## 1
Amino acid sequence: MSRIVLVAAVALAALAFPQMVTSNYFIHLGVIAIIWMIVAQGTNVIQGYTGYVTIAQGGFMGIGAYGSALLSVNAGLPVWIAILIAPFITAVAAVIAGYPSLRVKGHYFAIVTMAMNMVIFIVLVNWIPVTGGDAGMSGIPAPEPISLGGLEINFERRVNYYYLVLAALALVMLLVTAVVRSRVGLVLQAIRQNETFAEAAGVACWRYKLFSFVFSASLAGFAGALYAHYLSFLSPAPFSVDHSLNAILAVILGGSGTLAGPLVGAVLTTALPEMLRIAETFRLIIYGVSLVLVMIFLPRGLVPWVADLFGRFAGGRKDAEAENR
Amino acid sequence: MLVDLIQQLFNGLVIGSIYTLVALGLTIIFGILGIAHFAHGSVAMFGGYITFFFITSLGLGLFPAMALAMAVGALLGVGIERIAYYPVRNAPPINAFIIALGLTLIIEKSNLILFGVDQIIIPTGFTRVFNIGGVTLPELRVYILAIAAVLVIALTILIQRTWMGMAVRAVAQNRPAAVLMGINVNAVSMFVFGLSSALGVAAGVLVGALFAVAPGVSGGLVVKGFAVLILGGLGSIPGAIVGGLVLGVSETFASAFISSAYKDVIAFLLMIGVLLIKPEGLMRRSAAR
């Protein structure tokens, strides 16, 4: 019950956010934060629920972004269609990337995916006739205006784009919730707990791992498409390994394997550097230090920690301890 | 054509010997602690920077500067093990990996703050060029190959012939049994981190002399190191040596005969191909034996 109230309150706050803030700049931050929430939620499926860390989310975001931009600019497809096709393009790339890399486990899977991100990045920089190289691509159109009951909604306005990405996030949340609560989600968590045992119980683990990897990647691709049509300009820089690490940090900070964690983490990784107003270099050092500290002192992330605190406060020690089991 | 091939083979072996040094450090850490020490490349770059600093500011010669830098690197490695990895030694391996990512950010960006964004080339004074039957052998590259060979042989002797090396091998083979035999696993962990960081620093110095030390080099270096481990088999010392040379040579051939912009792509495709065909690596796993 209290959970439903909390979710409703957060949803209301998110809806009211553009009306409460006065500056366009905060709405811009809101859009970026929501796009990162989608990426982080995707990362959470493979990292938090399946237990495999991927360092390719930034690259897959790039595939979705460039895919959607190229479809709308060069192929002349309507932007709405392009945004919807982008996750599928990313999924195809993820199947090709995931099939060989899922043969290794743990650290090595992470490293192979990082090599893939580097490959994607190298291609984005060097395939100049298509991607424009380091100079980038400009003039990417925003989604076409739609009219709703005689009212025309123009997505070149920031507020309207904010509501668009918010709706996209709601869709992603429904999808991810459905997946992790389904039988497939249970199998993924079984793989995280003990892959050998799951395999011995007759589960063809590789199929589920591949599904999890591809699903995560296509959410990143979807977020990338939303990003491309929001900024209307693309260069390879935002799709480097650093940004894949950012997605991992968001999941770890918020709490991996929880639905709310990545959302909190994405807000923190977007808002903190803006609030601290510091140079990029120092920001990344602070990221590194916070990763190490969180891993040593709060390995489960902020959301489960806060939930425990509240549990202890409201329901006494016993409940909180029972939930820990 | 034959001369071309021999020339590229030589160039590839030089680069491959550097990859081998990086991979050896990674493989002994993996063999002992099961950690993918991702910050290794940043440690290597740090070594390149301080060697440059020792040469230009303290006026040391190349080899004393390199030795001093390796000692500093070893201390840094021990510090990393104590402060960052030791607290999570009993947690799931993923935690150590995420710590490794955090360390990478910290060391990499500290390098940027301490030493600036400009790339630096470590001055060596080795400028002669030998020419044997049409194959050019720059003196610097010959020395790099020789230094790498000396370090690899020294490491092998250390691991195979000394008491500490025996302790390292024992922990790699069977940790609980090693503990029961009275081996101090903490000391072994620190020793391994010190040793591999010193090797990493040496690799960083060679990279700095051959190409340059610059921000952004370390990521590529460490990924190449791990690619070597995947090629050669995780935790295997012979695998790291063979894998490093194979990667160096194939990368050089690819950039000479196919495309230099995509040479890294080709190196990674090689790694993925090995994963598909022989996931246990070219040399079967023999855990630092």
Note: Residues 26-240 of chain A form one domain.
## 2
Amino acid sequence: MINERTITLARTFGNGQSESFAYQAAKLSSGWDVGTPDVENEDLLEATAQTLATLLPQLPACRRQQLVVEAGTVNDYTATELITRSYLLAQWNDIILGIAEPGSNISANRWKGTIEIPDVNPHTPVCLAPSAVLALIRYFQEFQSLNILKPPNTLLICDTSSSLYPPQNLPIDKTSGDDHNFVFQLLARAESWFRPLSSVYGSDRRNLDIGISCGAEWPENALILETLSSIDSPHTGKLNWTAHYSVGTEENRLTCGEAPLDFRCSLRRLMNSLEGALSPKRIACDMDCIEGPQYGLSSWLRTDLQAGDILS
Amino acid sequence: MIWGEASCSAERGRSKVATLEPSNRMETHTCTFEGYRSSGATGVHRASGPPPKKLCPRLEAPRDPFEGQAIEESLKTLATLFPNRASLKLTQLFSQRAAAQDGNLAWQRNTAVWALVGSIAIGDGRHIPIGWSGSASQISRLSNPIMHERLRCLVEAVAKAESIYTGEFPAVLGPQAAAVLLHETVGHFAEGSSISSINLQHRIGVRIASELIEVVDDPTYEDGATQYDLDDDGIASFAPTRVLRQGVLFAQLHSQESAAHAFVLPTANGRAASAMHAAIPRISNLLCEPGATSTDELIDSVQDGLYIHHLAHGQGFGFEMRACVTLAEVIKHGRLTGRFLSGGQIYEQVGVLNRVEALGDRCELNANGMCGKAGQILFDVGTSCPPMRLSNLQVTA
């Protein structure tokens, strides 16, 4: 049973911004107390700045400012032990480049240049990268509460308290007598508590682990939706989506230029298009503007869509 | 203040959150927070903890304006109204915010807000969303018997409501429903962009409501959801900003930065969810002038249509807005029938209030002051509005 959790993290952005946070959540007799201890994070900031400097030249020139490198340490105190996890995470345009132990190398050399939508062959198969799958499923779950749409039978969605992103990983002891969901939101979503105005929105979702029961083969060339978001409220008609995209394969891609892809497609069509897994599960992130970054796991998925289906 | 070299905004505060489950289990948690946002030659830096002294003096711990009002008591009162049916979360937040330039304090002020969110079960797996919020001075609303009675009536009516039918209907919007539409259409249309380089001044002069509608934004309004002398840019608020004149957009609401890009003066509408966020143009209290028609006369003049009592989850995006219909009532032969409807959405364009034909003679402040924009949620965004009669309103599934 965790009695105290401290998280220290630092982020450096490609646009010159930086962040450095520390949270401490401690269990008191009256409930939990979250605080922001005065902790020097200079070492973490230095580590993120170094990794940022290494990664920037590996990326296509467009949107380099969107590169973010994060380093942090999570300490969980129980009555008998201290469990420490440190990490280094890099993401670019909400695409996870990698998560590793501090001091490890993260590579960003899988993008070889840029491409614009008019140059994409309309017969190119569409694939979803892990972050796009996670965003799609999280959006679908909002819709699911209306009981109008069911997920495809082959899709396996697991809500779990574990995560590859240490600040959102929380092995909860269900015998502790606490409200597990509340404690999870309190300890594994600490950033929203530091911004208390967003802590008001209670979510009962934890971390999603998404799989599909059948496999698929990589096409020679794919239109890859790297990220996915919709500003529409869920409904049964065609929704407006925005996606960062690449063209190629997982390890050899051309990325989109400055502008993301806007397209219209119903949620039912997108969900039913999911055919099979192209890879083992990878870390994914959905940048939720209210709940903050939500990490999860997903395979790359192939769809039965072609580029022309969503570009027309 | 003008942001320049080594400018810093800082905040120190505390929040309390009490949760109530249908089992009547209650938990209270606290959060003590301190953080700052600095900008200078090396870029923007956000951090938790006290700001470095060279940027901003350390803030004192703010006094608790909610002192003496046990957060649990407020929730318990509501729990007794709806035994084993309420799932609620009450948040109280108070803080001190300040801004400094090169280590010299430019301004400081206290913030105190609260929000009650959650739902009440009404059977058949259905729930009514609850959302009340505002500044600390309004927290007595939580123990106000009139508010309790209204909530009880709303829950009872929704429990026996039929599914709403879709289509276009002549309608009367009650004050709460009218406030949601006014906020989503006029309020957000009048705000400058959260991306300050996007200049929306071309919207000035556009008609977005009927000529009956006069609207101001007033941060100094005493009975509003918020009241402040300085916005989060440190701009003093002296008087209301006229937003709509006879239904035409007269002025935009600006933060200091958006005003600079639009070559106009700021309107003291730069607001931030915390000192670590950039202030962006936000509504303070949106006030619509009342008309001269009683609510009974508005209903009578519709003859056959809908009275929209309550809307929830208002959303504006681009030139469209949506809101969920929590409770509507059928109007037949100019009378309310007691036949309640629920479900469905209002799905309209930003100009929906062009169809307003008459305004009621009394205004009410919407009890829910929560508003999200660009990932920042404020608890204290007020809308005061009279009932409105619309020639038609589109209700979708």
Note: The longest strand of chain B covers residues 104-123.
